[in-house]
């Protein structure tokens, strides 16, 4: 028996964190904070440790961090959740392909469960650089996005569970979009930032250059210049005969890398790149097509498309229906 459910995607435009950001937090932060508190194996760091981590590793982000903590009322819980320092590891599916110049595009699917999904797109200017991103979690982090310089970035799970001292991956994506203009700068920052889990980050800029940085808490970061990533790093830990596995999806991405963007985007809406296993935390909630040259993004579903960009941003909401075939 399948299960039908609905997700409301919302978009807000707010240059500096204020009432709109706070309203989003009040609506979504409870589920994240309950989940973080419920993970007993990973004790939360002190507020002092959180502040020190931001100051050391993300100094440009410190004024924004302090503003967000203030907006949430201050206190230890706000400091811990906004810093994204420590806490339990995150995991999801996802496939991403970078298409080259002269019309570079970063095409990604986001595969997860609707239970822990904000479904909020925001245009912001928190550090002086405009960013359009799909937000995630309590710290201002994001799953993917693009900035006014045309740098696009997206995360995927790296394929194994490991946990260590570091930032949750959504804040790392946010930090790169807030502080970098080109792939080379993004690779340098990603390579030095401590990440609490095993994740892959792919970045692409207006020139069409792209790179994948493998982040892990138990080994140094590594860089790949393959124009794609799924859910493994250097070592395959999945069944290569399964087209929906990480290696099977990467093979499909390889087959698509010379196609036009519209053809690739359509293929992302079909198996093996599209999934409906939401109860198993592996259902496609959206596909995004980032176009660095015109600083825009199209959010795609099988029956709809929502266009956004740095220059032209539409507030509002879209209600999308999904079918969970694992129910």
First-to-last CA distance: 6 Å
| Tally of helical runs | 8
**Mind describing the biggest β-sheet?**
9 strands, mixed
Helix and strand run: EHHHHEEEEEEHHEEEEHHEEEEE
- Percent of residues in beta strands: 25-35%
* Uncertain stretches: none
**CATH class category label of the domain at 89-314:** Alpha Beta
CATH architecture of the domain at 89-314: 4-Layer Sandwich
| CA radius of gyration | 18 Å
Q: CATH homologous superfamily of the domain at 89-314, by name?
A: Penicillin V Acylase, Chain A
The mean pLDDT is: 92
What does this structure look like?
The structure is a single chain. With 327 residues, the chain is α+β, with helices and mostly antiparallel strands. Helices cover 27% and strands 30% of the residues. It contains eight helices and 16 strands. The strands form two sheets. Strands 10-9-8-7-6-5-4-1-16 form a nine-stranded mixed beta sheet. The protein is globular and about 50 Å long. 48% of the residues are buried.
Key phrases:
single chain, 327 residues, alpha+beta, Penicillin V Acylase, Chain A, nine-stranded mixed sheet, seven-stranded antiparallel sheet, 16 strands, 27% helix, 30% strand
């Amino acid at each position: 028996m399948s299960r039908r459910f609905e997700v409301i995607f919302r978009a807000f435009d707010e240059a500096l964190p204020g009432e709109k950001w706070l309203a989003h937090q009040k609506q979504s932060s409870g589920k994240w904070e309950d989940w973080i508190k419920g993970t007993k194996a990973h004790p939360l760091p002190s507020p002092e440790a959180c502040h020190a981590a931001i100051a050391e590793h993300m100094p440009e982000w410190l004024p924004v961090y302090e503003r967000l903590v203030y907006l949430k009322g201050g206190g230890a819980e706000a400091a811990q959740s906004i810093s994204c320092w420590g806490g339990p590891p995150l995991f999801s599916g996802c496939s991403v392909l970078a298409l080259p110049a002269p019309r570079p595009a970063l095409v990604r699917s986001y595969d997860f469960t609707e239970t822990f999904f904000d479904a909020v797109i925001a245009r912001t200017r928190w550090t002086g650089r405009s960013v359009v991103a799909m937000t995630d979690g309590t710290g201002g982090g994001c799953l993917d996005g693009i900035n006014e310089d045309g740098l696009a970035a997206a995360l995927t799970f790296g394929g194994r569970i490991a946990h260590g001292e570091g930032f949750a991956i959504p804040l790392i994506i946010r930090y790169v979009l807030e502080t970098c203009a080109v792939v080379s700068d993004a690779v340098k920052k990603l390579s030095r930032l401590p990440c609490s889990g095993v994740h892959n980050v792919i970045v692409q800029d207006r020139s069409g250059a792209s790179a994948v940085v493998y982040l892990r808490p138990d080994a140094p970061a590594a860089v790949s210049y393959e124009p794609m990533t799924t859910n493994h790093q250097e070592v395959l830990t999945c069944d290569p005969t399964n087209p929906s596995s990480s290696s099977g999806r990467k093979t499909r991405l390889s087959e698509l890398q010379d196609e036009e963007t519209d053809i690739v985007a359509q293929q992302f809406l079909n198996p093996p790149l599209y999934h409906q296993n939401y109860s198993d935390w592996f259902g496609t909630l959206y596909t995004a097509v980032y176009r660095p040259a015109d600083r825009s993004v199209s959010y795609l579903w099988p029956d709809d498309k929502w266009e956004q960009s740095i220059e032209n941003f539409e507030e509002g909401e879209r209600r999308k229906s999904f079918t969970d075939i694992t129910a």
